[in-house]
Design a protein that fits this description.
alpha+beta, nine-stranded mixed sheet, two-stranded antiparallel sheet, 19% helix, globular
Amino acid sequence: MKVRVKFAKEGAMKFIGHLDIMRYFQKAIRRAGIPIAFSGGFSPHMIMSFAAPLGVGVTSSGEYFDMELTEEMSSAEMEKRLNDTMADGMKVISVRQIPDGKASACMALVAAADYTVTFRKGKGPDVEWKGRLQDFFNQESIVIMRKTKRSEQDTDIKPWIYHLELDGDQIRMQLSQGSVHNLKPELVMEAFARYLNVELDPFALMIHREEVYADLGNDNRRNLISLEALGKEI
């Protein structure tokens, strides 16, 4: 059977890179006695995959990985066992059973994500910016110079910003994610700074990912569902 684990990565754990997060959970699964399946061959490894890994320095309360089990275990038992092995800053939020098959793999399903962005104390723009955020979002296009491994080109990122609003001192945004159009919140904030005609300090932003979604809609309308909601409690 296949299960999906939702976890939070906060505090000092935000400085741990993706490969080390994978190793961390491999060790945690062993210590927790979770009956995870292994691949065959001369170098067997745990059958698990992560969805849309975060960059270093970004916290999250909506991270996911899938793993395949050799025997059934209740969601509550797996959550307890895993959390008993967690260090400060890491917490398993839920474990859900999901359908077998590549089509349900978390990596392939990712289509969007929610983020909250705040400015570090004393690092916000020197100009009035809160009243201009909506005007920035209401533009017909938001063109930025986007760098790829092969080139640099002007790109309109407006279609990939699904939602943008001010909530107190926080900027909440829902962005396209996944293999087709993967928009980072840093790029949105870079475009906003350019709109304000200011330059942000290198470490001005605190970014937190709230949730990751699959899109069950069609070409005419999005129907975003959290990866957690696609599974069921065991």
